[in-house]
Amino acid sequence: MKKATWLQASPPPHLALPAQLNFPPFVALPEESLSNFSLAKLMLLYQAENGTSFNWTHRQIVEWEKFAELARYESQKPAGKALLIVAYAVVILVSLFGNILVCQVVVKNKKMHSATSLFMANLAVSDIMITLLNTPFTLVRFVNSTWVFGKTMCHISRFVQYCSLHVSTLTLTAIALDRHQVILNPLKPRMSLTQGALRISAIWIMAACFSLPHAIYQKLFKYNYRKTTVRSLCLPDFPEPAELVWKYLDLSTFLLLYLLPLLFITITYARLAKKLWLRNTVGDITMQQSVAHHKNKKRSIKMLILVVVVFAVCWFPLNCYVLLISSMGIQTRNSLYFILHWLAMSSTCYNPFIYCWLNEGFRSGLKSLLVICRKAPTMRDNLRPGMVLPYREAWMEQARYKHGSFLRSTTDGQTLNTDL
Fold first, then answer.
1. Phi, psi angle pair for 257, to nearest 5°
2. Structure pTM?
3. Closest among 66, 13, 72 to 39, alpha carbons compared
4. CA quadruple 143, 139, 321, 247: dihedral sign
5. Low-confidence residues in the chain, pLDDT < 70
């Protein structure tokens, strides 16, 4: 009974522990070595009962035992659990509320029916997806020290985390390309909504394809913790040579789908900033128009750069941690993983605040949406009991309300268009 207690904490899904030497799979280890490793013994029992095995090496088994022994003590701290629950709950609530609001504003505000606004809504959808299908499952796994969601969600949760990351990175790259076209070639036609929708479809297809290997090679490992308790671990299980496949898959994902796109985005925005600050806009008729256009476009670029920086900063520590683990550069720590995972998930919360701060079109659309939600009951509440407005008067009142609520936003949009 005592030997099984170390498995109370479920390890992080990114944990990759390849051996530096080509050891044989654990099933080929001599019996005297197996007697020293409770994880190896459990996996042998699992193989005997299920007719399948994990493609793990001797070194990987040792490292996972070290992790699990450490995780047992870390996961038992009530204060740490309470703090993590509150932190994850705040991220989930803020992310859902803010990103659903972004989608509502983009859909209902006709002034924001542009390709770039469509990309912004796509970022929000990606954030909603990872908030619903990954963040809560990671939290529950940490609190319960076991995977309780079954085999299907073991694959889906892993898939969603990678797919959302890829969608966000590729969408930010598409936004940078769109801004490059609009600012450096202002006389050419802008991207239409149809073209934007086609690019978003291509982004999701590419992200899904890149994420499939991480989702497919997952295995749900169950064991008897006590006579009446069965616990589960959702573990990666790549084909042979497992350690090389795991290592180079994580490395290629980091380089091709995170670092390279961010480098391209950085170069693109640096070029745009240089052009905006050094030249006039083609087509300006008056000095006032020139100043207004420059101001709006600079604000637009600042907003998009800030979105990219926040995304990159939030995800960079977790990606580096995964690479260091896969290369055996550091030892695994349960609490450190969940802190870095929380930081990455918190990236889903910030974009709505950035849009409100730096995007005048989004801010006016949000105000109009909130006014519509608030004004309708207010008009009815102002009527005294038994008092009913005549049909014509009520119609005029409603017309004045609609005209007044949108007139200001329309006027502001003409003078403070964010070019989005």
1. -115, 5
2. 0.72
3. 66
4. positive
5. 1-76, 223-229, 278-294, 328-332, 374-420
